[in-house]
Amino acid sequence: MSFADPWVLLLLLAVPVIGWRLARPGKAGSAVAAYPDLRLLAQRRRSPRPWLARQLPWVRLPALTLLIIACARPQIPAGVREIGGAGIDIMLVLDISGSMQAEDFRPKNRFTVAREVLREFISNAGANRLGLVVFSGKAFTQSPLAADHQIVSQLLERVHLGMLEDGTAIGMAIATAAHRLEASQARSKVIILLTDGVNNRGEIDPPTAAEAAAALGVKIYTIGVGKEGGAPVPVPGSAFGPRYLTDPRTGQVLMTKLDEGMLKKIAQITNGKYFRATDAQALRQIYDQIDKMEKSEFTAKRERRYNELFGPYAAWGLGLLLLQTILGATWLRKAP
Questions:
Q1: pLDDT tens, position by position, 203-223
Q2: In a domain, 44, yes or no
């Protein structure tokens, strides 16, 4: 146990002095009447507990001791918690273009697996603030930076394929996420970009957006998803078995394409790292690895918490004083 205001305990030195005064013969507390009326003595009822009545003033000593201890604010440790002042600000950037319907992450498609992995990442984010940007032909901030991870997770659940016009605007997605991190005061500012395509939309090309992010002190981890050689993209709503997108000129099934060179360049410009995920397990391991990499460099501040014990000590002290007052006025009452 420790005390928030230990100097108050110096008042305990007065307790022995008060006890000494109570023990002195003819001490204050033995009331003396200047002009006693002897008829009162004849009428008084003797206390049924004369010895207890004489000891009653001593109750003040433990009561005073408890009140002094309460004023010194006794505390006991209640553990240590991390506070978000020194955490990391992370913008999660998710591709929701049509190619994310590819089912090479069976039994689910790329988008469904990516959303599940992001949900797990959000739930284990600790003291970090998180935000979410989704993109296809355009980029959209689904959630600004927030310390409340439950809200970010709820907003992630509202993301679905087709909510934006199709395409792959990687440069615009990076620029949107970097803008959200521009005013951040965190020690580390990170973008985790997941995509399975090639930049084909938007007014900003990815390398230019990456250079702007690097100028703001933002590090970008890029994740390319999909098996080597690509995968066909199913046409939703087909009633006659699986159908896939085809080239209208040749009739051949279209395969997804991933621009790994561009993603590696984005990571290199911002001092980040590129990863390739060819299945669901690999994608989970990538997010775990990124989480450990950042935690190894940046740790949140730790704050020791205490439970205050003022209440119990004050209650016992006041209770003893109240008990002395009640007994002195009733069962242990003495005549002057």
A1: 999 999 999 999 999 999 999
A2: no
